[in-house]
Specification:
- 2 copies of one chain form a homodimer.
- Chain A is an alpha/beta fold.
- Chain A folds into 3 domains: about 55 residues, 434 Repressor (Amino-terminal Domain) (Orthogonal Bundle), CATH 1.10.260; about 130 residues, Response regulator (Rossmann fold); about 140 residues, Response regulator (Rossmann fold, 3-Layer(aba) Sandwich), CATH 3.40.50.
- Chain A is about 45% helix and about 15% strand.
- Chain A has 15 helices and 12 strands.
- The first copy, chain A, has a 6-stranded parallel beta sheet, sandwiched between helices. In chain A, strands 7-6-8-9-10-12 form a 6-stranded mixed beta sheet, with helices on both faces.
- In chain A, strand 6, helix 10 and strand 7 form a beta-alpha-beta unit.
- In chain A, helix 1 crosses helix 2.
- The interface between A and B is large, with 55 and 55 residues.
- The first copy, chain A, binds a DNA duplex through helix 2 and helix 4.
DNA sequence: TTGTACGCGTTATCAC
DNA sequence: GTGATAACGCGTACAA
């Protein structure tokens, strides 16, 4: 179909060099004389040559592809993470093949197969679906971000410190009782990094002998569902801890915002006995009707370190005598506390 | 490096068939006897064969790659659009190579070159950077979404209808004056689809002889900057149209939400003489302290129709005698009105 | 139904 | 500095 592609052969004929020399022009130009470089450069322009990396892949095996499987782009956290990951192209030059997981193992296995068939050099996993021991068996450089990571390399936020910091902030405001609302289903799943938030909360409260309550509740994915659950929780708390200064540590800003709105609609303002800290530093935390104090994950750093860790593994693999990692590397990124109106009042 | 890859050759040796037969097993299995299919299937499992699509690309030219250049993933609109585009993998099977543009033409040209070097079969453009006449010259199937599209195929929301609907809703609530706040810089750039919103607003007001004002203002990209601009606008409007029922049509939900919050902080509630409609149906419009009426773009349909239109072009190109489009196809998707508390009150 | 031989566009190896 | 030739792994006439 259509007009023939210009290849090294055409350039070679046109310039009376060999294919090899044309190839060298791209991969090791200094090995050619300057004038020959110019001749070839001119030929490329004359013939309007466009490089074909697919052929290069077949010849040398380097696709420069990284595969990504991400749970969704609905949550700002994931969208921003993907954004930051894609931005590393400027630094590392790797191209990204992106799939959005749907929570079903079989589907995600299909995605991984598809990615492998394109000879990706490494894989970034953000979904929680496939256990890390299975991922490890893929025998390809892998880095996970904020998920169960026992058998693979990973980059995570220091969730424990985040939980500790959030609780500490509420304690500093002399809250009589501190309540942590988290959506993780099981209280006993320490493999999920986000569980660290719970532990940080619990440890701080115990160490400082602060009255506290842990509310673990799966609230569903729709706004209505979350709102209804939080309405119930708000009513219970208000009654149960009436007269006490209440510190609320909510495990993400979306829910924190919904809770703040419920409070505003109930009282017209944030009552003096309510203090609130979210998690994530989503845009919503800043743009809420009352700006929300929150623990921010350094998404740019998480993304950068993840790709860096992946690139290192990929580079190691290309050596003649690659030595595989003895055990997975787990990097930890420090979270940042943002003090806003829900704790500092206004 | 490492253990050799299993290829069709290995399978052929193992099964005493030829490479061709193995190839046929994948591309036209029915041409083999059932028992031979089973023999090969077993061999594939025994040797743990993994297919190599890169080699297939080189052989038959079909990469099944689509390139995407998107402005950012910060705005929910783009994140959701990317999500819906990626989701079409299940329908059409195309894989996506994604780049985030940064507004600089040179950078985006580099991205396009890189994409072309991987022999993408089609290109989806959401950035506003490179003019469509230049895109058209790439001589590859292209579909743009909600951007200037004079010389290329595109899918857009019916922005004119959206603007008309929003204004109509405000008029139905007997607003004395309707004000449209839009961030597009120039009032005279009808090539940008979003300009249709302005035109729809103006036409409705003129047809129905409604007092109106058009506020076009570049507000910057930071929350602080937008808030400051909107604070000024709110003060001016409040004073200028004191005593009148005011209908505000804001060109996106993020800004609408910030404006609602400013109003709530000023009055504690949405005063009876304020009515408000946003645009986009972002999650924030539903989750705002007072849920915001808005014009929703059918992002799923936009994405699906864009890929469908692209796939059709790509298919046409593979025919022995492809006939190029005489002129670009522009599809239009109807927006949907969501009535919420900022107009229906509560 | 199955096999042979060649092409896809580049890189790697070894010569000169 | 430069060139000839063989990979890389699969698809596809054409033949049998």
């Amino acid at each position: 179909m259509k007009k023939k592609n210009i290849t090294f052969n055409d350039i070679a004929e046109y310039t009376h060099f060999s294919k090899t020399t044309i190839s060298r022009y791209f991969n090791d130009p200094d090995s050619l004389t300057l004038e020959n470089q110019e001749i070839i450069a001119k030929a490329l322009a004359d013939l309007d040559y466009r490089e074909n990396k697919v052929a290069r892949i077949l010849a040398n095996g380097n696709t420069e592809f990284i595969g990504i499987i991400i749970p969704n782009l609905f949550l700002h956290y994931y969208a921003e993470m993907l954004n930051q990951i894609l931005a590393t192209y400027e630094t590392f030059g790797y191209k990204f093949l992106v799939f959005v997981g749907n929570g079903q193992e079989e589907t995600e296995r299909r995605y991984i197969d598809e990615l492998l068939s394109y000879k990706i050099e490494g894989l970034i996993i953000l979904t929680h679906t496939i256990p890390s021991n299975e991922l490890a068996e893929l025998n390809i450089p892998i880095v996970t971000i904020e998920r169960e990571d026992k058998y693979v390399c990973s980059v995570n936020t220091d969730n424990y410190m985040g939980g500790y910091q959030a609780t500490s902030l509420l304690a500093n405001h002399d809250c009589d009782v501190i309540i942590h609302i988290n959506y993780i289903n099981s209280p006993a799943n320490p493999d999920v990094p986000a569980y660290g938030r719970v532990q940080g909360f619990l440890d701080f409260c115990k160490e400082h002998h602060i009255k506290h309550e842990l509310i673990l509740k799966e609230m569903g994915n729709t706004y209505e569902s979350i709102k209804n659950h939080l309405t119930d929780i708000l009513n219970v708390i208000t009654e149960k801890y009436s007269g006490l200064k209440k510190g609320l540590f909510i495990s993400n800003d979306t829910q924190a915002n919904i809770l703040v709105n419920l409070i505003i609609r109930k009282y017209g303002k944030l009552p003096d006995d309510f203090f609130l800290v979210g998690f994530d530093n989503s845009p919503i935390s800043q743009e809420a009707v009352i700006s929300i104090s929150t623990i921010g994950q350094q998404i740019d750093k998480l993304a950068y370190e993840a790709i860096k860790l992946l690139v290192e593994q990929m580079a190691e693999r290309k050596k003649r005598k690659p030595k595989p990692l003895e055990k997975p590397i787990h990097k930890v990124i420090t979270p940042i506390l943002f003090r806003r109106e829900t704790t500092e009042k206004y």
